Amino acid sequence: MYQLKKKINSQYLIIFFLIIIYSLASYNNLGFYNDDEHFQILEPVAYLLGFNDILINDYSDYYWEWVDDHRIRPWIQPNFYYFIIISLNYFGLNDPFIWVYSIRIFNSILGIFSILYLFNSLKNIFFKNNSIQIYFIYFSFWFFPFLHIRTSSESLSITLFCIALAFLIKTFGTTNEKGSKLKIIFFGFILGLSIVVRPQMIFTIFPIFIWVIFFRFYFDKILLVSIGLSSAIFFGLYVDYLNWGEFANIYYKIFQLQILEGRMSGFGSQPWWYYILTILKDLAPIFSLVFLVSLIYFIYKNPKNIFTWMILGTLIILSFFSHKETRFIFPIYIFAPFFIIYLIDNISNLRLKRFTAYSSLIFNFIFLFIIMFFPINSKIALYKFLYYQENKNQNIKFIGENPYQFNNMEPFFYTHFLPKLKESESLNSINKTLVITNEYDLQKKIDNNGNCKIIYSTYPMKIIELNSNWKNKKMNWYVNKCN
Hints:
By secondary structure, this protein is mainly alpha-helical. It has helices at residues 2-28, 35-49, 76-90, 96-126, 132-139, 143-148, 153-173, 181-197, 202-215, 219-244, 250-260, 274-282, 287-301, 306-320, 330-333, 336-345, 350-373, 378-387, 412-415, 440-447, 461-464, 468-472, and strands at 396-398, 422-423, 433-437, 452-457, 478-482. A five-stranded mixed sheet has the order 2-1-3-5-4, covered by helices on one side.
């Protein structure tokens, strides 16, 4: 009885810990990791709200995925977020930053559920013991909140995938684990929804089905999962039909445009070993090195494991495509804590074991701190500052880069609510204005102007001045009030 009570109390403590992390990250980590996170999700929402009138008729090639000739983007996620916003509007909440925060909180709740469910379902496979060290490595993993608070298709699809995978591993794991037919169909539907949200998830799900056929061929279970998965696919096509007004098979069009016609290769070409380098470079250096070593070790020790087939299958398929991006391997990286803990548990040398564990934790906490307290995109943080200005009708000018543009695309979801901007070509015409720039040298010239005072900086100036490279990267936005 005491052990049960202790276990329940520890679970509540973990949930409280995760709520704090996710709440701070949702509030502070403004912006988007990749342009698609905003322009392929929130801009379609802006279209549904009436703020973006060019989404499906813009032939300038910026929204090419949505125009009549192509239509390869699913509508289900934008529609879902649209209904969240409409519900908030009903209560008089017309603030775009409250909208996004609410969407992130919903994604966070779903994400927290997924990692708790994953932990309870897979810990017997990966963990030899339940030490406090293991709990810290798993539940403080920086990538969990980073991914789950995103409004990207990767975020929602991977969360749904993890929920479905945790159940299906238990279902196909043993012959004794039958589960009700409706439950298997339901989780098959969740698995299918992950494909509907992001069709590229098929590259991760397909190797799992191959593993099931080779090692766990239970025809009745496969059939039930397939029924659920197919139902989700048809549901997604129906949602697309409601939005387009006609049937549009986005899966065939993706295959036709991206693969057969080679549109994907137009975004750049990388060598087959790209993902090895990008793991080390882009996904929390040092921590990522431990992950890569642990991944290789797990695959070597468990060649017939479902995760080995899923990882190798995903990497092999993705490596065939010339265009590669770090976010394409997020479905693999989400399981990093499992592999790292598996490696640590199997290190016999006590010193090496402790070094691996503590070095992983230290570098993980560095990135977790960044996710919790800093914006990932400085422009969106600037928008928030401008939105909450007391005098929204004041004269605002920018010098240099236009803060209302991302690769020549305007984020109407935010700018619809923001004051209009004018470009100033010199410092001679900035009197009685708010002046915006992201050039450090130019900001220093403005500082020397006795009539101007800096009232906003995305990151503290003292931090930017620590590194000359940071000064030149134009990563920081400054707002000056000039009298």
